[in-house]
Amino acid sequence: MPQRASLSHKNRLMTNQMNYLRSLRQNGVDAVCIANATYLPKTYRLFNENECLQFFTYINSKVYEDKITKDGPQFIIKMGKEVHRGRGINMLFPQEKEELNKKFDKGELCGSVKTFKVAQQYIVNPLLYKGHKIEFRVYWILASTNPIIAYAYDKTLIRRCIYPFDKFSLLKGAHVCNTAIVKSTLKKMQNEDDDNDNDSDETDDDDDNNNDEISSQEDTLFIDWKLDHLQEILLKEGRIENNKWLQNELLPKVDRMIIHAIRSTQHTFAKDSKLGEFFAADFLLTDDLDLHIMEINYNPQTLNTTEARKQQHFKMVQDMIEISNAYLRSRFMRFQRIIGKLLTELESKKQKGKDLITNQIGQEIHKAYVDRLEQGISISQDNLFRLLMDENLQGTRAYKDLIQEKCLV
């Protein structure tokens, strides 16, 4: 989809969220609607002069110094354009703050420094698993942009940061759970161990044991859960009481956030039944179970980190193909009916073909391009994608009733 950057470029996604929220406020929606429509943490766009000035005024204030003394780093700096896999991400540690202050002259050069960087509020109280910060990735697809139809995958990739979480840690791997960062850190650790082995007289058996240990550690960093396992842990810890928390609270929040992300960007999409895209949204749960989208990637990597994950990705591709094929077959059926009608008229009236293409037929062809599932075509029950939104449906039903009528503008 040519307009995918509206979702995958951090600078564009954040700008789209701000414009979306501004539009909601201008239309008089209430604070609850605004809160539900907010899917990204507070962000300063350093390419926007006013926001850049606000950011540097804040990080060079005593209030900020007191804050980081108490709670550790408050911002994570990201490159706004198409930069993923951990590249262009830096915690605002003291050295990074000094370098940023130097580049922007403590804000004096805001508006003149060409940059796509954004400063996103760092979530200082993430939910931890065995002392490590975790994030989870939800795969989803835009099946069509004519109208907007989207599905989200039921299984989830949960990633654990490589180092134990400490809000004062200066190790990037304690704060950023990106797969590429985890794998590069493990590789570096393995190379360091290999260098140490070269200086010793240890046997090959020791080398094999070391490689097994690295592989075992890698497997534990990519947790092959469905989110119901997370629910089980939270129930055991007494952090939640409802054994329907996943279905009634977390998944509706996940789906609503993705829906709002789509709604905030869909004005940029070309309306075309031939367009679709594969995305992944990275989510973070806080210690008090608040939810945030950290970023959205298009055509995300599906790393074969474990054997179970290989099977899961194979199943996911199968399910995506089934959905695409269902809408394609439905479109074929609609055009087949139109062609059959034209052939019947051509044979009965013996008219020339050009005389059959009337305004009415043109309207039927236009409607045939509008994606929807025809009667007799459905998505199989074992397909693990769930419907997110379908703008063929009316009112709040288009969004699974996850957005109130008063919040739709």
From TrEMBL:
Task: Quote the Gene3D superfamilies the UniProt record gives.
Answer: ATP-grasp fold, B domain
- PROSITE patterns linked: TTL
SUPFAM superfamilies for this protein: Glutathione synthetase ATP-binding domain-like
Q: Which InterPro entries match?
A: TTL/TTLL_fam
**GO biological process terms, semicolon-separated:** microtubule cytoskeleton organization
Cellular component per GO?
Answer: ciliary basal body
> Which stretches are tagged as biased composition: Acidic residues?
192-211
Single GO molecular-function term?
tubulin binding
Q: Which UniProt keywords apply?
A: ATP-binding, Ligase, Nucleotide-binding
Q: Which residue stretches belong to region Disordered?
A: 188-214
Which top-level group of life is the source organism from?
Answer: Eukaryota
Q: What is this protein called?
A: Tubulin-tyrosine ligase family protein
Q: What is the lineage of its organism?
A: Eukaryota, Sar, Alveolata, Ciliophora, Intramacronucleata
